[in-house]
Structure formats: C-alpha cells, structure tokens
C-alpha cells in the first residue's frame, strides 16, 4: 500500500512538472498564509487574496534552499502562474514567478520554454529517472 501512495506522489509531481499551460496563466496578489513542505514534491504556499486561499506549487525544497528563495508567512507577493487541476479536481497555480514585495525580490520557477528551472541542474532531479 505504501508503494502505491509513493507512486501516486511521483505521478502527481511529474504531472505538475509537465503541465504548465500559458493559456491558463493568471496573476494574483496577496499575502502568504501558509507554507506546506511535504516529503516529496514541490513546496506549496497558500496565498490569501480577499477571503480565498490560492494554493501555489513552487519547486522542490532542495531548489528553494539552493536558490535562497525566501517565502515567509505574512509576506506580500505577486504570483504569475498557470491554473492546474489535480486528479482530485483541486485547483492549484503552478508558479512561473513570484515577486516577493516584502523583500523586493523576484523568483523565477520556469524558463523561457516554461520548463522547471531546477530540471537538469546538478545531480538532483525532481523526477527520479
């Protein structure tokens, strides 16, 4: 049973990695209300805009640490990202970039071809080969 759950997480991760669709790209501005780091997959941040929380898929934890990306509770951010629905029908945004207004930094998560910036960097890969 554990094996099936692990496979599902990697399948979700691969689906997220390959699913950036420019046709569904939106921009939202709000405050970081939560930061969720799971054992596998991307770090997810919850952005509070008015009375709604938008869950944003960012990058693997190792990439966030390597690039010294700072996303803290209460930070005001502008997220550019594509809408993505999980197999359960849950809405996420896949981050292309995040402008952290609180610290003045802009973080990129996708290259000019919309591929993840962490793909192929170093020996670590997001999806095990």
TrEMBL record:
The record, for InterPro entries, names: MamS_MamX_dom
**Which segments constitute the Magnetosome protein MamS/MamX domain?**
27-99
This protein's name: Nucleic acid-binding protein
| Organism encoding this protein | Thermodesulfovibrio yellowstonii
């Amino acid at each position: 049973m554990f094996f099936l759950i692990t496979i599902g997480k990697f399948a979700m991760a691969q689906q997220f990695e390959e699913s950036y669709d420019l046709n569904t790209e939106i921009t939202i501005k709000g405050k970081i209300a939560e930061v969720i780091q799971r054992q596998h997959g991307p770090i997810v941040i919850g952005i509070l805009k008015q009375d709604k929380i938008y869950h944003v898929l960012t990058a693997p934890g190792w990439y966030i640490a390597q690039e010294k990306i700072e996303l803290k509770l209460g930070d005001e951010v502008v997220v550019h990202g594509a809408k993505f629905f999980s197999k359960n029908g849950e809405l996420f945004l896949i981050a292309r970039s995040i402008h952290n207004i609180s610290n003045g930094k802009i973080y990129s998560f996708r290259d000019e071809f919309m591929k993840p910036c962490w793909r192929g960097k170093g020996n670590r890969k997001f999806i095990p080969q």
